[in-house]
Amino acid sequence: MARLDVRNLGDYIREQRNSAQISLRQLAKLAGVSNPYLSQIERGLRKPSAEILQQIAKALRISAEALYVQAGILDERYGDSDVPTAVLGDPGITERQKQVLLEIYDSFRRENEEFPPSDETTTTAKDTDVPAAASDSQS
Q1: Domain residues for 54?
Q2: Considering the entire predicted model, what is its pTM?
Q3: Four-residue CA torsion sign, 90, 91, 97, 99
């Protein structure tokens, strides 16, 4: 599992809170944590549990997965992929769009883990041979 970078996580939570126009007190109340504890998380002094991250995500109305990715909790799940980092770091899309993209990406990853694509579905059209019947009609 990746190391939790509490400073970047705190900055990310603060950024999300500010963009949602919610005060620290309001977010603490919505997430069910104390004001000082949330402040310490935002300043990178505390390492929140996955459960607390989920409560904060719910209060901010963002995907818990987005927070887990930001916290480094999901790095192993995505292997060597930089997709979540790229999506989360893209300033050109909204937080809702980021959430949806990550959810779609995650669903594709889960589907491919359950049912790995066969060689037939991973080849491109230029990689396939022209069937004999089709090549005969071209002559």
Answers
A1: 6-116
A2: 0.53
A3: positive
